[in-house]
């Protein structure tokens, strides 16, 4: 695609998808070909732009990326905004992967920058290829209609002017303009699901089944997004959440009259929950009794109050989940944590662990049996990996910056000789895998 055609396509997407901005657009630029092509295209189309770059500071060369983007802003003579995590550290929420935590920090930086400077539009460099990868990724993990609608071209302040263009188009545009974008080496790491889909699954589908699979997936996302909006409008006419003392509520009688698909949609209006938590809440509303309650991910509390389903922040400490004995080997459901634990006994330590799952590998004999999952208790101590002496669990939480409200329900795996793993944090040095280890116990924690 020639530069003029590329610019025309970007302009067409801006108009057709309602992205026209009356004032400045804040462009998120990583330094890669997509975001670099985006800011140059918008600048050539005479949209007033400013550039924002978030330096994660977690890989070698990230500082060079920031300098590169700053130089690009100077060449275009536009304002440059740089963001970094405080002290290059990001406090992860319970169950959150490092990648999710950094993404949250990056979006917060973009939105705060836009708000501080009175900017109403934030442009990101998502392409049609990103859309296709997102749809496939969500399909593989069991998403519903809303998840399969992919990346919205416009959502709140965010716009995606490249959403109808291929990644090859942005590369060709950069080449024509003699731009030399930066390359992120982690994009080739197939341990990450998106990268594996990009490198393996999509090319396979294109070669064997449909040469234009990416365009087909993007079209499906557009159709599903429109249908999702229609269902939302229909739901708004049928049932509306009410605000009540810092929470939201709906009448269980009204909920029961809806089709199950609309019931789930109504519940997700009360809180952004995954499929498992949504179904638990739906069954509570339909079959529970007044006074019944659930504690949900995100420190939310759901309860039945005289014909109302009420969802809001947990105002008191959640009930401590009961201890559960682990099935080794096997999978143990842990309803008190809305999670499950998978235990595998192997001859060697797997490397790497699955992306986004809290996991650890232990010497099975040193960990002992039986093992159980329980909540922390006063006086808990263990010996974190690399330490010669035991340490109070409360001090480990303080060092890891675990919010006090989450400590009481952070799961620990207990063995006959004490704690072997604080899930998502540290495991006991006495249980580490060594050259003399004969059986490796692999534990994987998954939020349901």
Structure description:
- The protein is α+β, with helices and mostly antiparallel strands and 448 residues long.
- 39% of the residues lie in helices and 20% in strands.
- Strands 3-2-1-4-6-5 form a six-stranded mixed β-sheet, sandwiched between helices. Strands 7-8-11-10-9 form a five-stranded antiparallel β-sheet.
- It is globular, with a radius of gyration of 25 Å.
The number of helical runs is 15
Tell me the strand order in the biggest sheet.
3-2-1-4-6-5
Estimate the mean pLDDT confidence. 87
Our estimate of the beta-strand percent is 15-25%
The share of residues in helices is 25-40%
Overall geometric form: globular
**How many beta-strand elements?**
21
The main sheet comes to: 6 strands, mixed
Give the termini separation: 45 Å
Question: Which runs of at least 5 residues are low in confidence (pLDDT < 50)?
Answer: none
What would you report as the Rg, rounded to the nearest angstrom? 25 Å
Structural class: alpha+beta
Compile the SSE list and pairings.
Elements: H1 3-16, E1 25-28, H2 33-44, E2 49-54, H3 62-76, E3 80-83, H4 98-116, E4 121-123, H5 128-140, H6 145-148, E5 154-155, E6 158-159, H7 167-176, H8 193-208, H9 213-238, E7 242-244, E8 247-251, H10 252-256, H11 260-270, H12 275-287, E9 293-296, E10 300-305, E11 308-313, E12 324-325, E13 330-334, E14 339-346, E15 358-363, H13 364-367, E16 372-374, E17 381-382, E18 391-392, H14 393-399, H15 404-407, E19 412-415, E20 418-422, E21 440-447
Parallel strand pairs: 1-2, 1-4, 2-3, 4-6
Antiparallel strand pairs: 5-6, 7-8, 8-11, 9-10, 10-11, 12-16, 13-14, 14-21, 15-21, 16-19, 17-18, 19-20
Helix pairs in contact: 2-7, 5-8, 5-9, 11-12
